[in-house]
Amino acid sequence: MARRKKIYEGKAKILYEGPEPGTIVQYFKDDATAFNAQKKDVIEGKGVLNNRLSEFFMVGLADVGVPTHFLRRLNMREQLVRACEIIPLEIIVRNFAAGSMSQRLGIEEGTRLPRPIVEYCFKDDSLGDPLVSEEHILAFNWATQQDLDDIIHLALRVNDFLSGVMRGVGIRLVDFKIEVGRVYEGDFQRLVVADEISPDSCRLWDIETGEKLDKDVFRRDLGNLTDAYTEVAKRLGVLPKTNGPAKPRLIN
Fold first, then answer.
1. DSSP for 44-64?
2. pLDDT tens column, 161-213
3. Domain ranges, residue 177
4. How far apart are CA 56 and CA 73, in angstroms?
5. Residue 250 within a domain
6. Is residue 179 domain-resident?
7. pLDDT digits over 42-72, tens only?
8. Please, are residues 121 and 89 in contact by the beta-carbon 8 Å criterion?
9. How many domains are there within the chain?
10. Is residue 172 one of the residues assigned to a domain?
11. 233 within some domain
């Protein structure tokens, strides 16, 4: 499709004006960043893999009744999504201690948490996306109490879905982050899962070996990032060599 007006360029994606009102074309780049873009590289094929994987997860979420902004994949690097008003928060769900939680609280990485823990970071690259509390969110009017209740409900439903799908292919969902957007239909507002869900936004470890299959491979110089993401895509049946994408399934 012909290029439209560029709306925004981030670290991993470019957003273009969509072909119909209320739509956006989301283009997945090969750029990889870590530590608030202090570490950068271009990883060939990363954008293609993330586009396919995000499609897989968004379609699966819709199938189990979780609303998302995803409409359809357009090509190997682009997907069409609904325009929405992004709430300026990263919503993080943690099932095991890792990364910044281990550093902040002195909990050994890989420790199973008593229950899934939801955290919030204020989306501002210049500030390093700082951790914030519900009190900050309400005081600065980034979201209402009803929004927060709905966000927690959405995040935990996503966690249940992703954990089951990953467990079914031998992968542990350690943690993940999502963004949530507001969609307006007349006077009615609803919240939807937005942005992307991919190994860029999840921590994924092989259940048997503990091998990392996510962006920590790049952060910690553990090997080839494309190989890690390709392994996730192969296990999920997302790559074209299969007879089509595997249908996401929940594991009891």
1. TTHHHHHHHHHHHHHHHHHHT
2. 999 999 999 999 999 999 999 999 888 899 999 999 999 999 999 999 999 99
3. 86-224
4. 10
5. no
6. yes
7. 999 999 999 999 999 999 999 999 999 999 9
8. yes
9. 1
10. yes
11. no
